[in-house]
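Appendix B. Raw example, untouched.
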Amino acid sequence: MITDQAKQSIVDIFCHAARARLPATPGDACEIAAVPRWNRDRPAAPCATVLTISSIGFRLLFVLHFSNDEATRAYYVGDDTTRPLPETLMELGNLCCGYMNQQLVNVFPDLGMSTPYELHSACVEYLDELRPDQVWTYELTIGGAVRLGVTLCLCAQAPLDFRAELATADESEGALELF
């Protein structure tokens, strides 16, 4: 059982994280629109970066869909021919998911986050195999030109109820900490 308050908190955390972490240039617009779930008739972009935030009580999959097209490469890597677009988007996806993790750890201190890995976007067709409690899909327009997709898939093993208190994103959040 996931309460409406918990669902809205996850949406709020995601939207805040996406606007703070997915634009390549701070201040660029990040428009987020909820869309019907991806399916064979309405495919997502062909490439995907996947991350997972897990706790004892739930698992949240974060799937960032993108096309390796000229507009997306120009926006995210520019003239840097040494850096592949998937690697760049894995890092940005990691920062976005890391921000979400930081917001959730305020309520769930037992969280862990996976490293990003790349899959084909068709993998979202099989999310139902996880028996999710909630799936959200979004289209994002970044900088007025680049289109990304995001699928969030929540699987709860226990009742989930919380209210997010969003902290302001600063430049240091989401950075890798070494001990």
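End of appendix B.
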